[in-house]
Amino acid sequence: MATRCAFENSNEIGVFASLTNSYCLTGIGGSENFYSVFESELSSHIPVIHATIAGCRFIGRTTIGNRRGLLVPSTTTDQELQHLRNSLPDGVVLQRIEERLSALGNVVACNDHVALVHPDIDRETEDVISDVLGVEVFRQTVAGQALVGSYSVFTNQGGMVHPRTSVEDIEELSSLLQVPLVAGTVNRGSDVLGGGMVANDWTAFCGLDTTSTEISVIESIFKLGAKQTSSTIVNSMRSSLIDHLT
Description:
There is one protein chain. By secondary structure, this protein is an alpha/beta fold. The protein is built from eleven helices and 15 strands. It has helices at 13-16, 33-42, 59-62, 78-87, 104-107, 123-133, 148-151, 167-177, 193-196, 212-221, 230-245; strands at residues 2-5, 17-19, 24-27, 48-51, 64-65, 69-73, 93-97, 108-110, 114-117, 136-139, 152-154, 159-161, 181-183, 197-199, 204-207. The strands form five sheets. It has a three-stranded mixed sheet with strand order 1-15-14. A three-stranded mixed sheet has the order 2-3-4, sandwiched between helices. Helix 2 links the parallel strand 3 (24-27) and strand 4 (48-51).
């Protein structure tokens, strides 16, 4: 299920929110509507946390995380760091990193297994990403754009990339990430996917301008549809049976 929402008249909700399988961060806004949309969908599964980074609300572009960890830039204050530590689930590692390219959400895209990073990111940062998030790290571009976090969104189920990405690039990225990828847009034709939407393994949120065609592409590639095909049900039963026997 993909939900449309807006942050104070802005459709760029990926700028003001960050969503993983174990927590959700939202920027502090003038109205609680934005926070309420996330809370109504997520609060029974994962914590939804109000936060700022260096006093700024664009938390989705300055942080990067997955279910294992959260990385924040060096501009994060001690008070903000403490608030995040207190609010995040126990198993999530929080780390502040010194990196020249401090808008981490723009220069890193990741799921729980693989991360794509900007080609110019520091070697130390690459190591920290690998250790804290527990992922394999690849230096990549998406459709010739170095800002991989802005132009791609992917989960453990699937992913979307910039609409001008060539078929060869999509195939290469898909084999790196080991998930199916599709080229697409959000917010009625915007190619800045990271800024226009957030997604995890069971839900996604996108801007109010997103068309029904874009929503159906998002729900199909991220496997968010309510209906399960018989083959997926059989596969899940088979895997649970094998787990039980082993």
